[in-house]
């Protein structure tokens, strides 16, 4: 497997706040508002597991 392909698959596992449709999808999947998602990503980074844990502890 080439290095570029692994980078591409790794990037798909991260939460991106842009474009707007992707931000809305993450909000739906994580059951949170856009403001909560932005705060979580700012605080713990783009890893979905870390964001999910952060949101769970915040509730």
From TrEMBL:
It comes from the Bacteria. This is DUF3606 domain-containing protein. Pfam families: DUF3606.
């Amino acid at each position: 497997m080439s290095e570029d392909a692994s980078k591409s698959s790794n990037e798909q596992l991260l939460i991106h706040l842009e474009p707007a449709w992707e931000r809305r999808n993450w909000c739906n999947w994580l059951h949170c508002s856009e403001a909560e998602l932005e705060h979580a990503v700012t605080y713990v980074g783009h890893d979905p597991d870390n964001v999910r844990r952060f949101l769970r502890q915040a509730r």
